[in-house]
Amino acid sequence: MHAYHRRTVFSVIIALTAASIVALASRAGAQASCEGDFNHDGQVTIDEIIVSVNHALSDCPAPGPRFVDNGNGTISDTQSGLQWEKKSDDNSIHDQLTTYTWSANANDMDGTAFTVFLAGLNTSPCFTGHCDWRLPTVSELETLVDATRFAPAIDPAFNHDCTSGCHVETCSCTNIDYAWATPTLADLPDTAWAVDFNYGYANGFLKTIPYGVRAVRQK
User: Fold this and answer.
1) What are the angstrom distances between the C-alpha of 198 and each of 91, 160, 163, 207?
2) pLDDT digit string (tens) for 6-24?
3) pLDDT tens figures, 162-175
Protein backbone atom coordinates (compact mmCIF):
# COMPACT_ATOMS: atom_id res chain seq x y z
CA MET A 1 0.00 0.00 0.00
CA HIS A 2 1.34 3.45 -0.90
CA ALA A 3 2.26 5.84 1.90
CA TYR A 4 -0.54 8.21 0.88
CA HIS A 5 -3.11 5.43 1.07
CA ARG A 6 -1.80 4.30 4.44
CA ARG A 7 -2.09 7.83 5.81
CA THR A 8 -5.62 8.12 4.42
CA VAL A 9 -6.74 4.82 5.96
CA PHE A 10 -5.09 5.74 9.24
CA SER A 11 -6.87 9.11 9.26
CA VAL A 12 -10.20 7.43 8.59
CA ILE A 13 -9.60 4.99 11.46
CA ILE A 14 -8.82 7.85 13.83
CA ALA A 15 -11.92 9.76 12.70
CA LEU A 16 -14.15 6.73 13.17
CA THR A 17 -12.61 6.01 16.57
CA ALA A 18 -13.17 9.61 17.67
CA ALA A 19 -16.78 9.40 16.52
CA SER A 20 -17.19 6.18 18.48
CA ILE A 21 -15.87 7.87 21.62
CA VAL A 22 -18.43 10.66 21.26
CA ALA A 23 -21.25 8.16 20.74
CA LEU A 24 -20.20 5.99 23.66
CA ALA A 25 -19.75 9.00 25.91
CA SER A 26 -23.26 10.18 25.01
CA ARG A 27 -24.59 6.75 25.90
CA ALA A 28 -22.84 6.91 29.25
CA GLY A 29 -24.75 10.04 30.20
CA ALA A 30 -23.72 12.60 32.75
CA GLN A 31 -22.40 10.29 35.46
CA ALA A 32 -18.83 11.40 34.68
CA SER A 33 -16.90 13.02 31.87
CA CYS A 34 -15.19 10.90 29.18
CA GLU A 35 -11.96 12.78 28.82
CA GLY A 36 -9.67 12.30 25.80
CA ASP A 37 -6.76 14.70 26.24
CA PHE A 38 -5.63 13.28 29.59
CA ASN A 39 -2.39 15.26 29.84
CA HIS A 40 -4.05 18.47 28.59
CA ASP A 41 -1.36 19.17 25.97
CA GLY A 42 -3.88 20.04 23.27
CA GLN A 43 -3.34 16.76 21.39
CA VAL A 44 -5.00 13.35 21.61
CA THR A 45 -2.61 10.45 21.08
CA ILE A 46 -3.47 6.90 19.99
CA ASP A 47 -2.88 5.74 23.58
CA GLU A 48 -5.30 8.36 24.86
CA ILE A 49 -7.88 7.30 22.27
CA ILE A 50 -7.61 3.69 23.46
CA VAL A 51 -8.02 4.74 27.09
CA SER A 52 -11.03 6.91 26.18
CA VAL A 53 -12.71 4.04 24.33
CA ASN A 54 -12.19 1.73 27.32
CA HIS A 55 -13.60 4.37 29.67
CA ALA A 56 -16.61 4.93 27.42
CA LEU A 57 -17.30 1.20 27.21
CA SER A 58 -17.34 1.19 31.02
CA ASP A 59 -19.84 4.08 31.07
CA CYS A 60 -17.09 6.57 31.93
CA PRO A 61 -16.49 5.58 35.57
CA ALA A 62 -15.76 8.47 37.88
CA PRO A 63 -12.24 8.65 39.33
CA GLY A 64 -11.66 7.38 42.85
CA PRO A 65 -13.61 4.70 44.74
CA ARG A 66 -16.95 3.62 43.36
CA PHE A 67 -18.71 3.63 46.74
CA VAL A 68 -18.46 6.77 48.89
CA ASP A 69 -19.70 7.06 52.49
CA ASN A 70 -21.80 10.21 52.83
CA GLY A 71 -21.42 10.39 56.61
CA ASN A 72 -25.19 10.37 57.16
CA GLY A 73 -25.94 6.65 57.19
CA THR A 74 -25.83 6.27 53.41
CA ILE A 75 -23.34 5.30 50.71
CA SER A 76 -23.36 6.70 47.17
CA ASP A 77 -22.52 4.69 44.06
CA THR A 78 -20.58 7.11 41.84
CA GLN A 79 -21.22 4.96 38.76
CA SER A 80 -24.95 4.27 38.96
CA GLY A 81 -26.06 7.31 40.96
CA LEU A 82 -27.77 5.06 43.52
CA GLN A 83 -27.77 5.95 47.21
CA TRP A 84 -27.68 2.97 49.57
CA GLU A 85 -28.77 2.63 53.18
CA LYS A 86 -26.00 1.54 55.54
CA LYS A 87 -26.67 -1.15 58.13
CA SER A 88 -25.87 -0.94 61.84
CA ASP A 89 -25.74 -3.19 64.90
CA ASP A 90 -27.88 -1.14 67.30
CA ASN A 91 -31.37 -2.70 67.16
CA SER A 92 -32.60 0.28 65.14
CA ILE A 93 -34.53 0.09 61.88
CA HIS A 94 -31.12 -0.18 60.19
CA ASP A 95 -29.92 -3.19 62.20
CA GLN A 96 -28.14 -5.74 60.03
CA LEU A 97 -29.71 -8.76 61.77
CA THR A 98 -33.37 -7.73 61.55
CA THR A 99 -35.26 -9.82 59.01
CA TYR A 100 -38.46 -9.14 57.09
CA THR A 101 -40.83 -10.99 54.78
CA TRP A 102 -41.36 -9.98 51.16
CA SER A 103 -45.03 -10.96 51.22
CA ALA A 104 -47.65 -11.98 53.77
CA ASN A 105 -49.73 -13.98 51.28
CA ALA A 106 -46.82 -15.25 49.15
CA ASN A 107 -47.71 -12.97 46.25
CA ASP A 108 -48.25 -9.26 46.93
CA MET A 109 -45.80 -6.66 48.24
CA ASP A 110 -47.43 -6.76 51.67
CA GLY A 111 -44.72 -8.35 53.79
CA THR A 112 -42.96 -6.57 56.63
CA ALA A 113 -40.17 -5.46 54.27
CA PHE A 114 -42.75 -3.08 52.81
CA THR A 115 -45.23 -2.49 55.65
CA VAL A 116 -42.66 -2.05 58.43
CA PHE A 117 -39.16 -1.44 57.05
CA LEU A 118 -39.81 0.76 54.01
CA ALA A 119 -42.82 2.35 55.67
CA GLY A 120 -40.56 3.36 58.55
CA LEU A 121 -37.88 4.83 56.32
CA ASN A 122 -40.42 6.72 54.22
CA THR A 123 -42.49 8.18 57.05
CA SER A 124 -41.92 11.91 57.56
CA PRO A 125 -39.35 13.29 58.21
CA CYS A 126 -38.01 10.20 56.38
CA PHE A 127 -34.52 8.70 56.45
CA THR A 128 -31.98 11.42 55.48
CA GLY A 129 -34.94 13.60 54.49
CA HIS A 130 -35.83 11.42 51.48
CA CYS A 131 -39.12 9.55 51.26
CA ASP A 132 -38.47 7.42 48.17
CA TRP A 133 -36.56 4.47 49.64
CA ARG A 134 -37.30 1.09 48.08
CA LEU A 135 -35.99 -2.45 47.78
CA PRO A 136 -33.27 -2.78 45.13
CA THR A 137 -33.62 -4.89 42.03
CA VAL A 138 -31.55 -8.04 42.04
CA SER A 139 -29.16 -6.55 39.47
CA GLU A 140 -28.73 -3.43 41.62
CA LEU A 141 -28.05 -5.46 44.75
CA GLU A 142 -25.52 -7.62 42.90
CA THR A 143 -23.41 -4.53 42.18
CA LEU A 144 -22.46 -4.51 45.87
CA VAL A 145 -20.94 -7.99 45.65
CA ASP A 146 -17.16 -8.24 45.73
CA ALA A 147 -16.31 -11.73 44.51
CA THR A 148 -12.76 -11.41 45.84
CA ARG A 149 -14.12 -11.33 49.39
CA PHE A 150 -15.95 -13.83 51.54
CA ALA A 151 -18.31 -13.64 54.54
CA PRO A 152 -19.25 -11.00 53.65
CA ALA A 153 -18.65 -10.92 49.90
CA ILE A 154 -19.22 -7.20 49.62
CA ASP A 155 -17.35 -4.00 48.92
CA PRO A 156 -15.50 -2.81 52.07
CA ALA A 157 -17.55 0.40 52.16
CA PHE A 158 -20.45 -1.75 53.36
CA ASN A 159 -18.50 -3.64 56.02
CA HIS A 160 -16.17 -1.77 58.36
CA ASP A 161 -16.00 -0.80 62.04
CA CYS A 162 -19.04 -2.98 62.74
CA THR A 163 -19.16 -3.48 66.50
CA SER A 164 -22.00 -4.14 68.91
CA GLY A 165 -24.12 -1.03 69.39
CA CYS A 166 -22.64 0.94 66.49
CA HIS A 167 -24.83 3.33 64.50
CA VAL A 168 -25.04 3.89 60.73
CA GLU A 169 -23.22 7.21 61.04
CA THR A 170 -20.15 5.54 62.57
CA CYS A 171 -20.04 2.01 61.16
CA SER A 172 -21.09 -0.09 58.19
CA CYS A 173 -22.38 -3.63 58.70
CA THR A 174 -23.42 -6.50 56.44
CA ASN A 175 -25.09 -9.70 57.56
CA ILE A 176 -23.73 -12.71 55.65
CA ASP A 177 -27.20 -14.15 55.00
CA TYR A 178 -29.58 -13.32 52.13
CA ALA A 179 -31.08 -9.88 51.50
CA TRP A 180 -34.34 -9.38 49.64
CA ALA A 181 -34.53 -7.82 46.18
CA THR A 182 -37.07 -7.39 43.42
CA PRO A 183 -38.70 -8.45 41.14
CA THR A 184 -40.80 -11.59 41.43
CA LEU A 185 -39.49 -14.54 39.43
CA ALA A 186 -41.28 -14.57 36.08
CA ASP A 187 -42.58 -18.14 36.31
CA LEU A 188 -43.00 -18.32 40.10
CA PRO A 189 -45.35 -15.63 41.47
CA ASP A 190 -44.74 -16.73 45.08
CA THR A 191 -40.95 -16.39 44.75
CA ALA A 192 -38.70 -13.31 44.72
CA TRP A 193 -34.98 -12.72 44.27
CA ALA A 194 -32.52 -12.46 47.14
CA VAL A 195 -28.74 -12.02 47.18
CA ASP A 196 -26.49 -13.97 49.54
CA PHE A 197 -23.61 -11.95 51.00
CA ASN A 198 -21.74 -14.93 52.37
CA TYR A 199 -20.59 -16.07 48.92
CA GLY A 200 -22.21 -13.37 46.78
CA TYR A 201 -24.76 -15.13 44.58
CA ALA A 202 -28.47 -14.63 43.85
CA ASN A 203 -31.30 -17.09 44.21
CA GLY A 204 -35.08 -17.21 44.41
CA PHE A 205 -37.01 -17.90 47.62
CA LEU A 206 -40.59 -18.04 48.83
CA LYS A 207 -41.66 -14.51 49.70
CA THR A 208 -42.86 -15.51 53.16
CA ILE A 209 -39.33 -16.40 54.35
CA PRO A 210 -37.79 -13.70 56.57
CA TYR A 211 -34.52 -12.28 55.18
CA GLY A 212 -32.48 -9.13 55.57
CA VAL A 213 -33.07 -5.94 53.59
CA ARG A 214 -31.06 -2.95 52.40
CA ALA A 215 -32.90 0.07 51.04
CA VAL A 216 -31.84 2.11 48.04
CA ARG A 217 -32.95 5.22 46.18
CA GLN A 218 -31.94 7.10 43.05
CA LYS A 219 -30.10 10.32 43.84
Assistant:
1) 21, 15, 18, 20
2) 454 445 454 544 555 455 4
3) 999 999 999 999 99
